[in-house]
Amino acid sequence: MTVKLKPQLANNMEGFVCIVFFFLSALCVGMEIMARKARPPEVSASNPIFRKFQTDYFKVYFLALLADWLQGPYLYKLYSHYGFEESQIAVLYVCGFASSVIFGTGTGVLADRYGRKKLCVCFAVVYSISCLTKLSRHYGVLILGRVLGGISTSLLFTAFESWYVYEHIETHDFPPEWLPVTFSRATFWNGILAIGAGIAANIFAGLFNFGPVAPFIMAIPLLIASGVLVSTKWNENYGTRQMRFSKLCIEGLREIVRSKRILLIGAIQSLFESCMYIFVFIWTPVLDPSGPPLGVIFSSFMICIMIGSSLFHILTTKHARLQAVHVLAISVLLALTSMVACIKSTHPHHENPTVSFLAFLLLELACGMYFPCMGYLRSRIIPEKNRASVINWFRVPLNSIACIGLMYLHNDDVLGTHKIFIICSLLLMIAMLCVLQLCIFIKNDDSLRIQIVDTDTLNGNSVQGMERDSLMSKI
């Protein structure tokens, strides 16, 4: 339950958010410069054929990403604007979340069997329809839109990358070692697009008074342009056409049961990321009553993710010599600190939106450090042949925790929001214990020790983190 604050406080909050945004922007530039100096030079930078191929891919992929990011800042605001209660909005979020997860388990197989190009075009069509449903105030139509949005998000983060990897290796015969170069650049520009999308959404929805539906309408021409470029410029490619869901699932479960390290990785991922999914739902109702520019807040979140990613690269260079698991422990501790602060700042009759906003920024900073850490550790600990099925198993407890948080904990009780942050704090405490246990395993096993983190590999993994945060911003 939220209380509308005084106009003077709303004005103060708006000014504070803008000041923080500019400060974070300057800090992000400085951190990125430091991180770039710590990275090794790109061996592919002088190859004009590769650069052209990469640029042609980015033209399509970035259009799709920009359309995706535009929808993040005002999703909750749109549903609230239509007059729905928080419990009803929670159902909408869960529908999108469940759709993405259920469909995401088979997206890779569908892309391999029916063609990656076809599914990329399908993404543009389905996502455009999802955006159009936002014009309706009918609850059933909005649920359909969330389901289509979940399907589209799964396609975005599976079909496009699969198409690129095949063309990179099989069609153009570029070295596989050059793949992280593309993923690294995608990570950087993904962050820039996210920041720009938040500002653009705020301008059209707020300053121009087009309302919270404006960003969704803005996304449609971008999606259409992306689909047209795919259909006219890309070649079709396929993967293995054998579908073996049951065998893959069983093998993945066996890997988890046999290895305590994999079990710990799965527990950390499920606990940490379930809190992130809950946060995506709750940040708007916590901050919106104070009247801040939601688009600028969203952009500030994305800047913090970029700062966290840059900080990760700085901490794991040969000069700092921190192992990825140590940075993972730092990120979980920062997230826990953020949740504890929110317990205090969201207590009924003692709400402090300024403290909540700063705590949310700290949480996003932790996310920027967490995702490349987790991606790297998964690559070292989980066997390649069963990685996809193992990660799908990790989603089971993650989904269950997130759905319980949205559907059960957040109700009309005045303490609903307060209770959510208490539960998230407890979950992150358990995650911290799992991280400490994982540190012990790595310390005692030389095969898992990471002396110097491979920066290019981590760049490749960090794009998955950014994409996951994009996914969480809308479901």
Structure in a nutshell:
The chain has helices at residues 7-38, 48-70, 75-81, 86-114, 116-133, 139-156, 159-171, 179-207, 214-233, 245-258, 260-287, 294-315, 324-345, 353-381, 387-409, 416-444, 455-472. It is mainly alpha-helical and 475 residues long.
Order of helices and strands: HHHHHHHHHHHHHHHHH
Q: What is the subunit arrangement here?
A: single chain
- Beta percentage is under 5%
What is the mean predicted local confidence, pLDDT?
82
Number of helices: 17
Protein traits:
single chain; 475 residues; mainly alpha; disordered C terminus
Topology:
Blueprint: H1 7-38, H2 48-70, H3 75-81, H4 86-114, H5 116-133, H6 139-156, H7 159-171, H8 179-207, H9 214-233, H10 245-258, H11 260-287, H12 294-315, H13 324-345, H14 353-381, H15 387-409, H16 416-444, H17 455-472
Helix pairs in contact: 1-12, 2-8, 2-9, 4-5, 4-6, 4-15, 5-6, 5-7, 5-9, 8-12, 8-17, 10-11, 10-15, 11-14, 11-15, 11-16, 12-14, 13-14, 13-16, 14-17
Would you mind describing this structure in some detail?
There is one protein chain. This protein is an all-alpha fold and 475 residues long. The chain is 79% helix and 0% strand. It contains 17 helices and no strands. It has helices at 7-38, 48-70, 75-81, 86-114, 116-133, 139-156, 159-171, 179-207, 214-233, 245-258, 260-287, 294-315, 324-345, 353-381, 387-409, 416-444, 455-472. Helix 8 runs antiparallel to helix 12 (294-315) and helix 13 (324-345) runs antiparallel to helix 16. Mean pLDDT is 82; it is low at 1-5 and 450-475.
